[in-house]
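Slides due. Your pick:
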Amino acid sequence: MTIAGAGLAVLGSKDVLGKLLGPSAEYLGGKASGLIEKCDLNLDDIFARAFKKIAGRVDEPGQVNARILKNVVDEGRFVEDGLVAEYYAGLLASSRTRDGLDDRGLPHLAMVKMMSVYQIRLHFYIYHSILRLFGGKEINVGQHDGRRRLMVYAPLQGARDVLMPDVNEGEDFESVFLHSINGLYSHGLISEYKYGSVANINSMYGGADVPGFVVTPTYAGIELFMWAIGAQRPDAHEFLKKRVDDLTSPISIDSLAVAVNGKG
């Protein structure tokens, strides 16, 4: 049997596809209409979330740039995770402008496309925690010294609850966490960081009493967060003016993170 023939045999077998792909086989099983229906459900979820984000200004004239829409449609139809859907919805909402010319969301869409669901979850956890701790403070996030004032410490248990909330203790949390935090660093979404035992992070934060991680935000990380929440003005300098209680979070976020350098 040729490789092509073997491929057709697999595509023609729901049993084989199910064993190979799991529930994702629904995207390929049956007819093309099944694929369209499942993709439409995912997109409908994103559009509904975006609509909620602009609810207060929905009657104002506005449109979304066509290139932004194309990227959201192309990727969003395969998004099933609630928080990832929130990111695409936020980018769609933030891209709605009066003339539809604004396509600044494109680099952020490209970033989200590169990120795993774990990296997105940790990104949201970090910046949600920073906003909870420092919201309302007069801190210039455009300067390195200002962002260092926003450094936070969080127990590893908090990261576990966000990254792997529904798995057993025996699951490989360490590899998932390392993939996530190192990925955020390589993407430029965090800067200085340390993780591990109390002794290991003591040089950056001496107040830890359980294993955890210390992390410093970046301008790019703040900016992505602003687009992800659907801010009307997704400017990083507006970050600390946001109210954490106004944010939509499909995942549970604890209050265990603390400020490393006091309250800013």
Observations:
- Strands lie at 63-64, 96-97, 152-155, 190-196, 212-217, 258-259.
